[in-house]
Design a protein that fits this description.
It is a single chain. The protein is of the alpha/beta class. The chain has two domains: 158 residues, Rossmann fold; 31 residues. Helix content is 47%, strand content 11%. The chain is built from nine helices and five strands. The chain has a five-stranded parallel β-sheet with strand order 2-3-4-1-5, with helices on one face. Helix 4 runs parallel beside helix 6. The longest helix is centred in the C-terminal third of the chain and has 35 residues. The protein is elongated, with a radius of gyration of 29 Å. One of its GO terms (molecular function) is ATP binding. Its cofactor is Mg(2+).
């Protein structure tokens, strides 16, 4: 059910725009996870880790995923939930995923009905919704189209259910532009173990090689100017001493 496509994204952590300390923290976390097989076996937990990347559009969430994959040399499985028929098909996809992999669900806030907080509905609201759904389903049937029936419960089982331990080490990455819309059960510790915020401010910290070279040249010129001034001052002092020597 998965199709193989060569992964050749050039992103590396060296090019990710982020504070050096935070970047190093993420790198160390990833490397520690990849080398912790015995630890997970000892504590009786599946060898997996969840990362939630959140922030405004265009702040480098996809680039971060590529950098993670290149750092660990892991395969990337891009999962589009709206294309999955139901929870059973989702479980089959999980079983087929190999070890040393990163499972990516981008824009989780836009995927199916996973952003609600499971609020109670009145009987009338439920009846009205069911009636609308019947009409929509009938229309889709006539048009020959299907709809995904993956539920929040099915996704939670996908992340840390019984079958989540199959296939060796795995990293699960969610991305979202609106973390506040997500159901708390989806992003709690144990499912999304590390939350990483990406913002425009951090993106502005990127330095190009040209900028670094220009700064180095400017600094070198400044040092040379100081050396010239110091040499000129010494020469002037020597000339002054010569003039004031007795004849």
């Amino acid at each position: 059910m998965w199709s193989d496509v060569p992964f050749e994204h050039p992103a590396r952590f060296e090019s990710v725009a982020m504070e050096a300390e935070k970047k190093q923290e993420i790198i160390e976390d990833l490397l520690t996870f990849s080398q912790s097989k015995d630890f997970y076996a000892r504590i009786g937990k599946a060898w997996k880790r969840g990362y939630l990347l959140y922030g405004p559009p265009g702040t480098g969430k996809s680039t971060m995923i590529a950098a993670m994959a290149n750092l660990l040399n892991y395969n990337v499985y891009d999962l589009e939930l709206t294309a999955v028929k139901d929870n059973t098909e989702l479980k089959k996809l999980l079983i087929e995923i190999t070890g040393k992999s990163i499972i990516v669900i981008e824009h989780i806030d836009c995927s199916l009905d996973l952003t609600g907080h499971r609020m109670k509905k009145t009987e009338k609201e439920t009846e009205d919704k069911n009636e609308e759904e019947k009409k929509e389903n009938n229309l889709k049937d006539r048009e020959g189209k299907g709809s995904s029936k993956v539920t929040l419960s099915g996704l939670l089982n996908f992340i840390d259910g019984l079958w989540s331990a199959c296939g060796g080490e795995r990293i699960i990455v969610f991305t979202t532009n609106y973390v506040e819309k997500l159901d708390p059960a989806l992003i709690r510790s144990g499912r999304m173990d590390k939350h990483i915020e990406l913002s425009y401010c951090k993106a502005l910290m990127r330095k190009s090689p040209t900028e670094d070279v220009q700064k180095s040249i400017s600094k070198l010129i400044q040092v040379l100017d100081e050396v010239k001034k110091e040499a000129a001052t010494k020469k002037a002092e020597e000339e002054s001493r010569v003039k004031h020597q007795p004849q």
